[in-house]
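Bug #2210: token dump truncated for protein-disulfide reductase?
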Amino acid sequence: MAGVDNVAHDIQSILSSSERDYLVRNNGDQVKIESFKGKRVGLYFSASWCPPCRRFTPTLKELYNKEVSSKGDLEIIYVSSDTAEDGFKGYFSKMPWLAIPFSDSQTPNRLTELFKVPGIPNLLILDENGKLATDDGITAVLEHEQADEACSFTTEWIREFKHQQEEARRNQSLRSLLVFGSRDFVISSNGNQVPVSELEGKTIGLYISAFSYGTCKEFTPKLVEFYEKLKAQGENFEIVWVCVDDEEEELFKQELKSVPWLALPYKDKICVKIARYFRLSALPTLVIIGPDGKTVHSNVAKAIEAHGVAAYPFTPEKFAELSEIEKAEVITKKEEEENKPDGWVCDGNICSKA
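Reproduced locally. Full output below:
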């Protein structure tokens, strides 16, 4: 979780514009921003075109209807990244909270810059004084849904949540990463349930990807080759697919059947939690978890593309070894170029006169 600033933001000034001093509901009603004075505010950065957003919004809606709306001391505001009005309207029509009007595109951009929002979905909570209480409201919602506990976002509650997060990172285990609520299994390519306990003690790759993304389509065959080579060598290694796509379940099942590894269930809520926990910034991402349940490396996708199985087991010592090999190769190539007579060209397979 990123650092939380101690600036007291003026809600009226950060949410309004020169032409607007109100927010809107999905029925068109306008609500004056000044009515939020002394209340806590949640800024929900999201968009209709964002698959992780579409998966998380129903969870936030359930929390809002169950615990937030009746109390009246916290209001959530949709800060949209939509560029098409139809997408905005369709998505917002399912939200019970307020929004910055679609016609105002400058305020969402300004808020994104002001709070240095790294990506969406994102839920920031401002306290009664306009201070940023937490920049990780999404994880807070998911954690407490998993534990079936109330999620009030009071100052005391957020302080306890931060303490729990720090403890969770210190005590990270494979179970804390993969188990959610009563589900303590992953699934195989044929749909069978595999207990998480059977993966403990192995090196695990958490493959965070979306099969509809071009970069993931390109990388997956390389990862299949890497995986099969390691298994042939007898390595105690397994991959668990963390799908952050929003395609139909049948497409998910077809994709899972085409790969040799395991996966979290379709649209499992922990997928969003894992993406946030490891601060997902690129697709695909392959996080390596050691036999002790601790994180070995946050993303080895590029290392696999560059070195294949030679990069395994992705320890600092292994990367240091690969770095020395690369340096030696550069020196060798430079020496070969310096010693090569003028007029000769080498393409890696043959040297000939130009």
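Output looks complete on our side. The mean pLDDT is 88. Marking as cannot-reproduce; reopen if the truncation happens again.
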